[in-house]
Amino acid sequence: MEKRWTVVEVMRHARHDWLNKIQLIKGHLALNKVERVQEIINGIIGEAQQETRLTNLKAERFAELMMTYNWEPHPIFLEYEIVGGEADLSPYDEQLSEWCRRFFRLLEAQADEQAENHLCVTIEIADGRVGLFFDGRGAWRDGDAIRACLERCEPSAPLRLVSFAVGADELTVELKLPLGSGSPYW
User: Fold this and answer.
1) For 95-138, what is each residue's pLDDT tens digit?
2) In a 3-state reduction of DSSP, which class is residue 170?
3) What is the pLDDT of residues 26-68, one digit of tens each?
4) What are the Cα distances from residue 39, in Å, to 46, 109, 113, 161?
5) Alpha helices, DSSP H only, in 31-163?
6) DSSP secondary-structure letter at 133?
7) Is 119 exposed, middle or buried (0-12, 13-18, 19+ CB in 10 A)?
8) Are 119 and 166 in contact (CB under 8 A)?
9) Is the bond leading into 158 cis (omega within 30 degrees of zero)?
């Protein structure tokens, strides 16, 4: 079941994240590491720009999933990046967020909690379609179980599983989504 965040919970997590960032800046300033402070600030700006791009996709459930995933304990740390143009993903919001939620649960069940596990989701918008690239690094207990699930859990159209590869310490998954009613379904 999907967590529904209250305004107070969202504010608590956002405040906690900002306080951590400010304390990191203060610590480096106290050590007179101005260049490192500049890097941290640039990182914060980059994160804010990515959040803006994510919310501009108009897929609210998907954006909420991506932005709040790390607020709860999971054996995987999630990052995301949007590259390319802009798109309105609102017609695909429910389907996209549900597929990602199921995929994240699959990875969580197979992630070795003793390892550092990272999943980077790159959303590429170009040429009338959207590509979602999942790049996982870490330790997977049973790669065959991940492969088997991906083979039998094809997403429903128009979302399409293009490719995947699963190794002991990495995995890649690629999804495609055509944009608009006239877009080709490759």
Assistant:
1) 999 999 999 999 999 999 999 999 999 999 998 889 999 999 99
2) strand
3) 999 999 999 999 999 999 999 999 999 999 999 999 999 999 9
4) 10, 35, 30, 37
5) 34-55, 60-68, 93-110, 143-152
6) E
7) buried
8) no
9) yes
